[in-house]
Write a structure and sequence with these properties.
The chain has nine helices and six strands, in the order αβαβαβαβαβαβααα. The protein is an alpha/beta fold. Helix 6 links the parallel strand 5 and strand 6.
Length: 196
């Protein structure tokens, strides 16, 4: 995980980020591509059924909405609550993680899961797919939801509304700390030294 995501973010930065992007309400953050195994469709269907209309969705990366996506969001009557922020710099992505209510990662499979660790480095709550790679990577730290069940995702969304303690935020940061670049490089060098 890049050191950028471990950088403390001030309240002023968060306020300015939200103002710049027109984020007046609490929001869920979705980062990256939306098609196929990334499972945006199941997440957005669950979100449309979720009874909390005070929390919006902000999307980063993955390209602008297609015509079909726009039509679908309109059909679900949530098009005014889902916004595309575009591609962000790492500094602005860090601000997005900090500003969000939670990062949502409903992928059906993943090779590693760097966005999950970036969110943890910022102390952000994560709703992640209940898949083996995330259990291996993050243990019990995320709120898990079945990627194939809208009801399970809704349960995860309801859990994020409970209070979030400073201890929980720090635990997420500690989880991400294991994967800092400097630690990865050090461990890789140790392996090479043993082989030589």
């Amino acid at each position: 995980v890049s050191e950028i995501f471990f950088k403390e973010t001030s309240d002023e930065e968060i306020v300015q980020f939200k103002k710049t992007h027109g984020l007046e309400k609490p929001f869920l953050l979705f980062v990256g591509k939306r098609g196929g195994y990334k499972n945006f469709d199941t997440f957005i269907n669950a979100y449309a059924k979720w009874e909390n209309i005070d929390v919006e969705v902000a999307l980063v990366g993955g390209g602008s909405f297609t015509k079909d996506e726009k039509k679908y969001l309109e059909k679900l009557k949530i098009h005014t609550r889902v916004r595309y922020l575009g591609s962000l710099t790492d500094d602005d992505l860090r601000r997005a993680y900090y500003a969000s209510t939670a990062f949502v990662f409903p992928t059906r499979y993943e090779g590693f899961g760097m966005p999950l660790l970036e969110a943890f480095a910022c102390g952000t709550r994560v709703i992640a797919s209940d898949i083996p790679v995330f259990h291996e990577l993050a243990g019990d730290t995320p709120i898990y939801a079945s990627p194939d069940s809208e009801e399970s995702i809704i349960d995860g969304l309801n859990k994020i509304l409970s209070s979030d303690s400073l201890e929980e935020k720090e635990y997420r940061r500690v989880t991400a700390h294991t994967y800092r670049w400097e630690n990865t490089v050090r461990k890789t060098l140790e392996v090479y030294q043993k082989l030589v």
